[in-house]
Amino acid sequence: MTAAVALHIASPTRSASTDEPVVVRWLLIALALSFLTLFLFVPLATVFYEALRKGVGVYFNALQEEDALSAIRLTLIAAAISVPANLVFGVAAAWAIAKFEFRGKSLLITLIDLPFAVSPVISGLIYVLLFGAQGWFGPWLQAHDIRIIFAVPGIVLATTFVTFPFVARELIPLMQAQGSDDEEAAVILGASGWQTLWRVTLPNVKWGLLYGVILCNARAMGEFGAVSVVSGHIRGMTNTMPLHVEILYNEYNFAAAFAVASVLALLALVTLAAKTFVEWHFGHENRTNIQEQET
Fold first, then answer.
1. 117-174 residue pLDDT tens
2. pLDDT at 287 > cutoff 60
3. Partners of residue 14 on adjacent β-strands
4. 8 Å CB contact between 238 and 219
5. 211, 170 contact by CB (below 8 A)
């Protein structure tokens, strides 16, 4: 009888895959579930409860108000512009960083991580200093009747800035792990750069790309700090959904505030479901590829 078998027989309360007792394992699981219940499930349930507490009619009336519809529309516009822009930038940056060696590569990686290190409020202030009435380009913009701050372009710029690392950061390690053998083989066989990108590189990273887009879209719709600085809080014009929720809550219009907040919560749940599906499918595809390589 080996020492491992003897230990297993002598300690029947221990897990087969860990040296920790089963009691400790269940205690950790209970603590994790308690934490999730207290800080995630209960607040989420509270949002929907408060949104529907006065009835379904009040709920839908709050969502059909002109200001609420304007906030929802502006949120979708900002996401519809910033996400594709970050998609193009993320693919280009990841392809350059993972497949080529060039001077300034480390600087580019640092700049990609910049929005993670800078507060969203600070990034919004930067745009005000650049494009505001007293900013560097403010007089020129006013002379040409171009509005960026306290208008839709400023909101789109702020949203794009805080979300542009997500796609690139998902693709860079994935492309680096895959190497450049497939691309080199495609070039040797006569493929052009665009053909290599569309038929070799992107199909290999499609699930990582989709994962990055999902995270980017979730952050774009829920962004508050940077958008709050550049929007001006003009009701019905420059308020996104998070800003509209704040205004309604400050006015003690709790039913309407939670109604709009529930839409954001639903978007978050849809994003979580899409994220889980992509993770599962990506993991399943990787396991299938490994099994095929082993056989």
1. 889 999 999 999 999 888 899 899 988 889 999 999 999 999 999 998 999 999 999 8
2. yes
3. 21
4. no
5. yes
Q: Report the distance separating Cα 57 and Cα 40, nearest Å.
A: 27
* Angstrom distance (rounded) from CA 254 to CA 54: 10
Specify burial of residue 9 (Cβ count, 10 A radius: 0-12, 13-18, 19+).
exposed
pTM across the whole model: 0.80
Distance CA(131)–CA(133), nearest Å, equals 7
Measure the CA–CA gap between 75 and 119, rounded to whole angstroms: 20
- Residue pair 15/25 in contact (Cβ under 8 Å)? The answer is yes
Q: What is the longest distance spanned by two Cα atoms in the chain?
A: 88
3-state secondary structure the chain: CCHHHHHHHHCCCECCCCCCEHHHHHHHHHHHHHHHHHHHHHHHHHHHHHHHCCCHHHHHHHHCCHHHHHHHHHHHHHHHHHHHHHHHHHHHHHHHHHHCCCCCHHHHHHHHCHHHHCCHHHHHHHHHHHHCCCCCCHHHHHHCCCCCCCCHHHHHHHHHHHHCHHHHHHHHHHHHHHCCHHHHHHHHCCCCHHHHHHHHHHHHCHHHHHHHHHHHHHHHHHCCHHHHHHHCCCCCCCCCHHHHHHHHHHCCCHHHHHHHHHHHHHHHHHHHHHHHHHHHHHHHHHHHHHHHHHC
CB burial readout 250-264, b (16+ within 10 A) else e:
eeeeebbbbbbbbbb
Spatial separation of the C-alpha atoms in residues 49 and 83, rounded to whole Å: 31
Q: How many CB atoms lie within 10 A of CB 4?
A: 8
Tens of pLDDT, residue by residue over 173-226, are 988 888 888 888 888 888 887 888 888 888 888 888 888 998 899 899 999 999
CA within 13 Å, CB half, 225: 14
Q: Which two tokens stand for residue 199?
A: 């038929």
